[in-house]
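Aim 2 progress update. The chain analyzed this quarter is reproduced below.
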Amino acid sequence: MKTVYKEKIIPYLASDMYSLVANISSYPDFVPYCHSTIIEKDSEKEVVASIELNFHGIIKKFTTTNAMVPSETISMKLKGGPLESLNGKWVFKQLSATSSKITLHIEYEVSNNIYAAVADTVIAKVSNDILMAFVSRAGQVYG
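Predicted structure tokens:
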């Protein structure tokens, strides 16, 4: 099992960052490589969604079941996609009245060893780019 861990302290509220990440249908507007999304189930506690990523012409669809704890966490579990397994968690922690920490932790397994090295590089880059896209989006939305 491989792991990617990214965190960033930002000048935005944890609840606002949670709202941005939880709004999966808006991802094609600003998340790098996100071509489209489909929401299969949407409730306060669980969201099942598919995200189609286009990484330099390679298009892959990931479907995850997401356990939602408003303003605190979003836990992702792969339901379908090109990886053997994928579990992830967004954590939103308020640090002060004007800052918070956003964390993205992903554990994954690639079923094909031939593609494992490429997958490791791509997943690390995409994860970082996605985290930074949310920080940039917060600047646009929340100033």
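The longest strand covers residues 58-69. Helices lie at 14-22, 113-142. These observations will guide the mutagenesis experiments scheduled for the next reporting period.
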